[in-house]
Amino acid sequence: MIMANRAGLGVATWRKPYRLGPWGSVTAFLDQLRTAPRAVLSRFPKGDDDETRRPLPVSGMLAGAGTLGVGLAVLTTLTLIGWAAAPRGAFGQGLPGVFRAACQLWLAAHHAGFAIPGGRVGLLPLGLTILPGALLYRAGLWMARDADLRLRMPARLPKGTPRDVENARRRAQLVLVAQAGISLAAPYALLAGMIALVAQNELTQPFLGEALASHLVLAFLAGSLATARTIGPWKSMLRLLPDRTRSVVVGTAVALSIMLVAGLLLVLGAIAVKFPEIRRLSEMLSPGFVGGLLLVLVQALYLVNAAIWGLSYIAGPGFAIGTGTLVAPTGVKLSAIPTVPLLGALPESGVAPSWIMGVIALPFLAGAVAGVVMARVAPTPTIEAAPLWGFGCGLTSGAMAGLLAALSGGPLGGARLSAVGPSPWEVALSVALEVGVAAGISAGIANWCLISRRPATPEPVRKAGAVIAKAAGRVRLTEKGSRALPGHWLDATEADTQPIPVIKDDWTDEHAAAAAETFAAMRAARSEPVRPPRSDIVDETDDRGGHVIYLDPYAWERDS
What we know:
Elements: E1 2-5, E2 12-15, H1 22-41, H2 56-85, H3 94-109, E3 114-116, E4 119-121, H4 130-146, H5 149-152, H6 163-198, E5 205-206, H7 208-231, H8 234-238, H9 243-273, H10 275-285, H11 288-301, H12 303-315, E6 320-321, E7 326-328, E8 331-333, H13 361-377, H14 385-408, E9 412-413, E10 420-421, H15 424-453, H16 459-473, H17 510-526, H18 555-559
Antiparallel strand pairs: 1-2, 3-4, 3-5, 4-9, 6-10, 7-8
Helix pairs in contact: 2-3, 2-4, 2-6, 3-6, 4-7, 6-7, 9-12, 9-13, 9-14, 12-14, 13-14, 13-15, 14-15
C-alpha cells in the first residue's frame, strides 16, 4: 500500500495496491528486458556523453533479429494460406514443411538460389525483395535512433565553417554510415545462415554462400541508407558525396528510371494486348479461388523482372526464354515455353514490325535527359570536361543495367531452361554506349549554355559582391537630404597619412627667391649692368587706383 499526502490539506490517504494483469506483467517484463543493457551500462563510468547509449553493434543485432522474425512471420502466414488451399504434398509433411517453405521464400526474397535434381533455380521474383528491404530500412531507422547517431553527427555545421572542417565532417559521416550498415548486416547475415540450414529438404538445397552474401549486401545497403536519412534530409544525404560524384549518381538514377518506366509501360501494353492468351493459360492451371489469388500475387512479384526485361528489349539485346531463343526488336524466335500465364504476353515468332525499331531511341532520350541533369547539378568551367563526365554517366548506367539484368534472369532447372532472361554483358555494353553518347553530347551543350550565360566574374567574387551590395543597401543615411561629398577620402586603413602643414602669411615664396638668385647669377656671368626699375610699370602693391600690371619673369625666354 502507498500513502500519499495531499498538498494543502495535510490529510493522509491510503490507496489500494495496483495489480498487473497477465498482459501487464508481460509488458513489464519486455520493458525490463529492453532496458537491461542500459541498466548494465549505467554502472560503468560515463564518457563525454550525458546519457548512456546502447552500443551500435547491440542495436544492430536487435534490429536484425526483429527484421528476421517479422519477415518470417509474414511469409509463414502466406504459406499457411497456400497450404490450406493446395494439396498437402505441395509443402511437405505437416507444419514443419510449411515452415521450411516459408524459409525458402525468405531466402528467395534475398535472391539466394537453390539446387534441385538436374539443375538449379535462379529465376527469382525481385518484387519479393521489397518486403525484406522495407523491413530492413525501418530497422535501420530504429537502430540509428536507438544509438543516437543523429546526436553524434549532426547534418549541418554553422555558417562560415572552413572548408577543411566541412570535408572532415563529411568523411566522418560516411564512416558512421558504413559502421551502421555493417552493424546491421553482420548479425543479419549470420542469422540467414541458420535459416538456410533449416530450409534444406530432399528436393531443394539452398546455396549457403549466396544466402550469406545476399543478406549481407541487402542489409548493408538498407541500413546505410536509413542511417544517412536519419542524419539529415534527402538533400543532406546526397551532399555527403562530392559534387562530381553526386552529379554522376543523379544522372545514372535519372537514366535508369526513365528506361525502367519505359520497359514497364511496354510490358503492361503487351499484357493488355495479349490478355486473352494470359487468361487461357491461367484457366489451364485450374488453381481455384485461393490458388488464383496466390498465382496473381506471384505474377505481380515478377513484374519487376519483366520491367528489366523490357529495359533489355528497348536497349537492343532483348532476352531469352531458354537456350536458342530470342525476343528483341529485330525479331522473335521462340520454342516451347513453360505454362506461366505472364509469358503469354510474349510476341509471336517472326520478324518484328519496322515501327518497333523506334523503341531503341528511348535509351538515347534517357541519356540526353541525364546529361542535362548532370550539367545542372555540377557545371564545370572546362568545356571539354562535361562530355567526359556525361560518358562516365553512361558507363555507370551500363554497369547498373547489367547488374539488374543479371538479377532479373537465371536458370529454371537444367537443359533448355538453363538460360532465361537477358544477357548481362550485352545489356551493359548497349546501355553504356547509347546512354553515354547521348549524355556526353547533351551535357556538353547544357554546360556550355550555363557557362555562357554567367558573367566572367569568378563565382566567389560574384557571391561576395552580391553580399556586400545587399548589406550596403540596408544602410541608411543619418540625415535627410545629405549626399556623399565629392572626391576620395582616404581612411587610415587605406594609406599612411601625414599632417597637412598650415600656410602662414609671412612665409616667403621659395620658388620666386630661387628664380631671382638664378637670374642674378646669369647677369653677373654676362657682366651686364644692373638696369634701373622702369617707371612705367606699376608695382603690385600700388593701391592708388588704376590697373594693376603683372610682370611675367619668364617672358624673355619665350621672346629669345
